[in-house]
Design goal:
Structural class: alpha+beta
Strand content: 15-25%
CATH topology: NADH Oxidase
Bound molecules: flavin mononucleotide
CATH class: Alpha Beta
CATH superfamily: NADH Oxidase
Helix content: 25-40%
Distance between the termini: 34 Å
CATH architecture: 3-Layer(aba) Sandwich
Low-confidence stretches: none
Largest sheet: 4 strands, antiparallel
Number of strands: 4
Shape: globular
Number of helices: 6
Length: about 170
């Protein structure tokens, strides 16, 4: 699919089919995550790839929405703060890197006709417990991954004129 069309069509999917996705599609999505750029190429992230069928209760603790566990997979992107590039003023870039990784996941999934939805409104304490994360590893975002069951929607966005700095 043409890239402009891909980003125009991608939308947050909050209704999924429950059937499996191809292993090859999952592999492509994870490869897109692996290839994401990171500040100074530090790659300060880890991926939690969770089968919903095996982790329903754990995942409901992390984010309690029925659609979160409808599809076969949930992927979490975790920032490893002490592996990240830190700017002179002390700004740690681990979360920026993790966000780029998640966007690669989301766009690669859309390219395969798969649905995703960025989820940051999760319970960070539950996520830490469920995934057994040490203090230096921060859960940044999760997404369900599977076949979408929703209909296309119009995008609501500011105009470019509103976004350009005057
Ligand atoms: C950083 C970030 C966090 C988000 N967190 C959530 C969330 O916790 N739950 C949710 O349903 N949607 C979440 N979203 C999805 C946004 O609501 C959605 O991207 C936005 O409304 C635009 O809609 P679209 O993705 O369909 O174009 C998040 C999106 C981003 C980029």
């Amino acid at each position: 699919m043409d890239f402009q069309e891909l980003i125009a069509r991608r939308q947050s999917v909050r209704d999924y089919r429950t059937d499996p996705i191809d292993d090859a599609d999952l592999a492509r999505v994870l490869e897109a995550a692996r290839l994401a750029p990171t500040a100074c190429n530090k790659q300060p992230f880890r991926l939690a790839v969770l089968r919903t069928a095996e982790r329903r209760e754990d995942l409901a603790r992390i984010y309690h929405r029925p659609w979160f566990v409808q599809p076969p997979w949930v992927i979490g992107v975790l920032a490893v703060n002490d592996e990240a590039w830190v700017r002179k003023d002390g700004k740690n870039h681990a979360e920026i890197d993790a966000a780029i990784v998640m966007d690669h996941i989301v766009l690669a999934a859309a390219d395969r006709g798969l649905g995703t939805c960025w989820v940051c409104n999760f319970d960070p304490i539950a996520a830490r417990e469920v995934l057994g994360l040490p203090p230096n590893v921060e859960p940044v975002a999760f997404t369900p991954l599977g076949h979408p069951a929703d209909a296309p929607r119009d995008k609501i966005r500011k105009t470019l004129d509103e976004l350009l700095l005057k």
